[in-house]
Design a protein that fits this description.
The chain is an alpha/beta fold and 337 residues long. The protein is built from 10 helices and 10 strands.
């Protein structure tokens, strides 16, 4: 018998809804919020207000695109956290009301867990990761190396002690005067630049943990000092600056991932999260796969950024396990694991 899951994601500034039939995606609708660009980052109050405006039409569009009536659903999965509290409250409240009105089971999903489990959404020609596997989870708010022993048995092997990799990209983009979000702009220009032109300080953190604050500061000081010598430094060197900074971030990410994979003797490796869309990181992962004989898993762009399909697939596996949440579940801003 087919299992139909509605997934709802509202952890930050994207209102998303998706419908999954077993592991097959039937619809994945996302409403982004352009209002934050003028502020150089997400404004929590504006984000929550936009979610209130978008949640009903987004869910309605997802159901219509999937060709299914609400009464045909088997469960409603929603992001409980981590994320912005106001944004999470909108998605959580809607999911509760929607599920309660239809007498459907409610399933809470950890946002980070959803990113990792997006690899289990059926894609033509793509294989699912085999357990145990390592996943480098990189986004604007998180950078972790996670060992996945099963769908819901995860062990955080390494994490950032300060800034996340995605945050470092956005801060570097802001220094260069790029609009928010600046990560994709750095990636685009990096493809045209030389990654060996500029060099930045690299943190030496024990074990598998990361630190990007020093790298970010090193980039800031270099740009500041060169601008004093040449006011046109950024525009004349934008591509090389982006290529060099991107290389430094990706090199830092990969060194710890390679070390963890060697020490744990795991050759099944995946990446997930918004920064997994970065072309430099994907290329570095492919080169490591060739060198160390890894089997790698790279998500499509639609599954790397925040989306509800990843919430729905996590909901699918929890539904199969009979793991449901109560009507009194409240959002959390930081991951519980």
């Amino acid at each position: 018998m087919d299992t139909w899951i509605l997934g709802i994601e509202s952890s930050c500034d994207d209102t998303a809804a998706a419908v999954l039939c077993n592991q097959e995606l039937k619809s994945n609708v996302i409403a982004s919020q352009a209002v934050h660009a003028q502020y150089g980052g997400v404004v929590p109050e504006l984000a929550s207000r936009a979610h209130q405006q978008n949640i009903v039409p987004v869910v309605d569009a997802a159901l219509k695109q999937a060709g299914i009536r609400p009464e045909q659903l088997h469960a409603v999965a929603f992001t409980r956290g981590p994320g912005l509290l106001g944004s999470l409250l909108v998605g959580t409240s809607f999911a509760k009301a929607f599920a309660y009105s239809l007498d459907l089971p409610l399933i809470e999903v950890d946002h980070l867990q959803g990113h990792i489990l997006s690899h289990f959404i059926h894609r033509e020609g793509a294989e699912e990761p085999r357990f145990p596997f390592l996943c480098l989870l990189v986004s604007g708010g998180h950078t972790q190396i996670v060992r996945m022993n099963s769908h819901f048995d995860r062990e955080i092997v390494g994490t950032t002690i300060d800034d996340a990799a995605g945050e470092a990209f956005d801060k570097a983009a802001k220094i260069l005067g790029f609009p928010y979000p600046g990560g994709p702009q750095i990636d685009r220009l990096a493809r045209m630049g030389n990654p060996s032109v500029f060099h930045f300080s690299e943190a030496h953190i024990p074990a598998y943990d990361y630190s990007f604050s020093g790298l970010k500061t090193s980039f800031l000081y270099l740009v500041r000092d060169r601008l004093r010598e040449n006011p046109h430094f950024i525009e004349e060197n934008a591509a090389d600056l982006c290529a060099s900074f991107q290389f430094a971030v990706c090199s830092t990410l990969m060194k710890k991932l390679v070390k963890a994979a060697k020490d744990l003797r795991i050759r099944e490796v995946a990446i997930a999260g918004g920064v997994s869309a970065n072309s430099g990181l994907q290329q570095a992962l492919r080169e490591a796969a060739d060198k160390y004989h890894w089997t790698i898993h790279i998500p499509t762009l639609s599954f790397s950024t925040d989306n509800a399909a990843m919430i729905a697939i996590a909901g699918y596996y929890k539904y199969a396990m009979g793991t449901f949440s109560g009507i009194h579940a409240v959002p959390y801003t930081r991951s519980e694991k």
